[in-house]
Amino acid sequence: MELLEVRNVSKHYKNFSLENIDFVLPKGYIMGYVGQNGAGKSTTLNLITNLCKCSEGEIYVDGITCISDAIRYKESIGYIGDEFYYPPNFTVRNIRGILKNLYPTFSVSKFDELLREWKLSEKMKVKDFSRGMKVKLMFASVLARDTKLLVLDEATNGLDPVVRVDVLKLLQEYIADGERSVIFSTHILSDLEQIADYIYFIHDGRKVLHDAKDELLENYLLVKGERRAVSPQLQKELIGIIDNAYGFEAILPSERADLLTSELHFEKPTIDEIVVHYIKNME
Amino acid sequence: MRAIQFTKIDFIKTKQQILWILLVIPVVLLFMLRQSSDSPMALVIFCYALFMALVFSTTPFGSCQWQETGFLLLLPATTRERISGRFLYGLSFMVIAALVGVVGMYLGEMISGTVIEAEIIVPFCMVAFAVCMVLMALEYVILYLFGEQQSPNILSLIRMIPGFVFFFGSMGLIGGAQEDPEVTAAFMEYIGGHLMLIGWCSLAAAFVLFAAAAMLCTAVTKKRDFG
To answer: Do A51 and B68 touch (CB under 8 A)?
Structure first.
């Protein structure tokens, strides 16, 4: 059962176009949305949260579009961004009051419990919070209500490793009941390695790769060795050759492993390596 | 009812500015009262309070940083509710200022010892309030047309010009009426005993224009993207 359906979505700006993005995210899974700065990650997430309108295509969250039922659509999404979005002179108390009045499913007791657990002061103005505290507050405000989809736009940027681990744990707990999903854009691809079930990789507004993470890791090999050991046929198949002091490094579709010779080393790549070599290939 | 939540958000966001205004207005009013005991001073006080409301009712636009606008757009409400909330904020701000102005007028009359007839002062206040509502609606339309995140310079221009037009316009009228009592008397004779009717009609017209402006802003903003 799909929770998020992004159907042939395009968005055109003067200097940038997001072209024909199409994917589904089933319930109970986490999707990592990756790409370089300016690739279109935030644009896609802004389209999902309806902060921007699609030029073409449609987006469904739990079967509804923002046009068919804007209130339910927005209620079912929890958004946590790179930048803190609550007005700086708000206190936690102000935020609780607003969320309680606007979201029917907002649980004050759950919110307070999270505040206590994370030691967030109610009286302090949020502008005085540290980056970690701000992220936790955004999480508390989202987790205290009944959302279906969590949209994270570089939410783990600038967090210390301890808080980042906490956040990743939270995401896994969030989807544990199999009814909710997370779409997660980040530059820290090791985070995705740990928690993502699907990877969607875009470059310059277009899809490059989209697959289940495990499939993706199975489908590619990281090849290393000296250039002279590369046959012309293998050269054609290698993706994103990067020369270094020891020879070269590139990725290769696993199905073409028959082209490898004993002089070349190969191993399972990380998501990071796949992305880096694909970007290199497109330069 | 969601619109009222957006009004509340705007009030929380501008709490500090409001407190500042509440402190400054009485000081300015007292200063005015000490300067002159002319009878129209009560009207000047009322106009000054509305002028302050006109200038400061646009504060939520100024505090709309990029991310904060995103926060408002993420809340479960329609564009119409969000914009109605902002217009309600402006209207409530003006009502509060008018009440402060009325208190100031009363104090002014007490101190100066000159009482303006209610038949004149009430319609005057109603018309002044109506003019301010229209000017505020105009400010909001311009601000929504330009987008909610303004550069401070543009915002200052938009917020100051209508306020000054109103304040100096009304001062000009009051001064003119004082300097040329014959024209004033002729005008009063011309409108007969319909001063209250004029007051009510201008308020009604202002409310209609205010609502129309809110609808126009909704239509403009609905199509706009964030950022």
So the answer is: no
Q: Compute how many other C-beta atoms are within 10 angstroms of the C-beta atom of residue A226.
A: 11
- Per-domain boundaries in chain A: 2-204, 218-282
**A52, A70, A103 ranked by CB distance to B78: nearest:** A70
- CATH superfamily, domain A2-204, is P-loop containing nucleotide triphosphate hydrolases (3.40.50.300)
Q: Over its length of 283 residues, how does chain A's per-residue pLDDT go in tens digits?
A: 889 999 999 999 988 999 999 999 999 999 999 998 889 999 999 999 998 899 999 999 999 999 899 999 999 999 998 888 888 888 999 999 999 999 999 999 999 999 998 888 888 888 888 888 888 899 899 999 999 999 999 888 777 888 888 888 889 999 999 999 999 998 888 888 889 999 999 999 999 999 999 999 999 999 999 988 888 899 999 999 998 888 899 999 999 988 888 889 999 999 989 989 998 888 7
| 3-class SS of residue A80 | strand
Q: Beta strands of B51-102 (E only): which ranges?
A: none
Which residues from chain A sit within 8 angstroms of residue B15, using beta carbons?
89
ipTM of the complex: 0.83
Q: Does B222 touch chain A (CB under 8 A)?
A: no
The angle subtended at Cα A147 by Cα A144 and Cα A153, nearest 5°, is 95
Judge: A85–B68 Cβ closer than 8 Å, yes or no.
Answer: yes
Q: Is the pTM of this model over 0.80?
A: yes
Is the CB of residue A57 less than 8 Å from the CB of residue A9? yes
CB neighbours of residue B180 within 10 Å: 12
